[in-house]
Write a structure and sequence with these properties.
The protein is built from 10 helices and no strands. The chain has 234 residues and is mainly alpha-helical.
Length: 234
Amino acid sequence: MITQPQATATAAPDPDEERRRIQTARLLAYRDDGPLVHALAPRLGKGLPPVAMLLVALLATIGVAVAGLSPLISVAVMIVLVLPTGARDHLGRLDWLVPPLLRGTEFLIVILIGLAYDAPKWLLFVLLYVVGYHTYDTVYRTRQSIWPPTWVFMAGLGWEVRLLIIAAGAALGILAPVLYVLTGYLLVLFAVESVTSWVRLDKASAQAGADAEQDLEASPEEALEQATGEAEKA
């Protein structure tokens, strides 16, 4: 990960550096890393190349499924190979592939575990829909320079903790109850946070529009009086 460059009083921000910083921030947000990645990434140095590791994890997941092995192996592969990639700056030419590869591999592993351990198919669909909605909401917000708060990604557990919870539920023979709780929790979290954030944004936009309209409707005498009053207060 990289941090925002420190601005100096004399030098203007470098446009190219600012673009690279925003690109990194967006791709890291689209990854949807959770508390485990954020806790370990600073200790992993430069980390591993994300695109290469995700391709290996995806191919390994497909290989595990074709060979008829336990899909829990794929969770271990994801944690070992993909978690260290969170330390990278994601400025490579192909690093835009990281979010779709990561989300696609996560979804594939969830489906394989659910099918292998007889989880309700509709529940798997709802879980994937909820996580997919969260990803879409994040992309839509950041494209308008509206960044979700960091606590949402931590509370949303991230791809790595979600997979570990599902794998633990499958290993303990309680996958269905774990999926019910996890899906319900994420549904409430992402839906409530998203709705309240957009409502708050709409109210702020409406208030700004009303203030601008009021300024336009003010008579020249009222505008002069208001400007004179503000000048006297200053």
